[in-house]
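Obj: model holo form, ligand = zinc ion.
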Amino acid sequence: MRVFRVITHILIILLLTVTTQVGGLAYILYLWLKRRIPTLGWKRKLLNFGLFICLYSILSFVIVPVVASKFYHRKALPITHEALQPLRMYTYVMNRHYVDEDLYEVLLNSAEKLQNEFPETTMYYLDACFPLGAKFPLLPHWSHNDGQKVDLAFYYVDPITKKDKNGSPSWLGYGVCESPKIGEKHMPDYCEKKGCFQYSLLEKLVPQYKKDDYEFDATRTKRLIQLLTAATKIKKIFIEPHLKKRMNLTNSKIRFHGCHAVRHDDHIHVQL
Ligand SMILES: [Zn+2]
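Output (holo structure tokens):
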């Protein structure tokens, strides 16, 4: 029984570390502290849960931002800024919103410029990087390991009124794709034929029921990419070739990421 309990604790620590980076440490502190708290009958479970949340919050929102800035030149992306926000709450709750301070500046500047041109347009970020570690990958994005990468959401319009529409058809932020139309270059097909089964995997896993409520907004998405390519510090942007062509984008910073990655017609990958 004791062995089973130890294995469970180790698995929880690993899972929390892989998904949130500092959650495993918060859990270790919690295990150490909870033995020192007097038993309060049925309230014990509630108290334990509260204790873990407190430790995780102190680490995530008080200690880690200071350490990330001092040792890794990284900053948490804004959470409530009008021009730049996370698309989904899990991104910042799980510490997946840290970027190099240079990338932070480029994103905020571009988001503000975009909002000047298109009022009420917010730049929505998805997974960026973890706060700590020179090569700590933010899974499943192996390359998001150094604070220099971030994923951004596309823009959409209402398919009936054609008015700008905030949000995303995907609850995850990923996996609802703006697929190639007839006659467009079809890298998802090409990569799947090459045996890269992971390329379109997410599209098969993420529910697609909201897809028809959102129409891809080529105008604002193109302008967002143009603003980012114009920033000298940005070196690479990944989107699917058919979207690059459809939006008539020609900047050489916009590249194809290769079949070993996943498809990029559901988000934009940006890196320094
Ligand atoms: Zn990415």
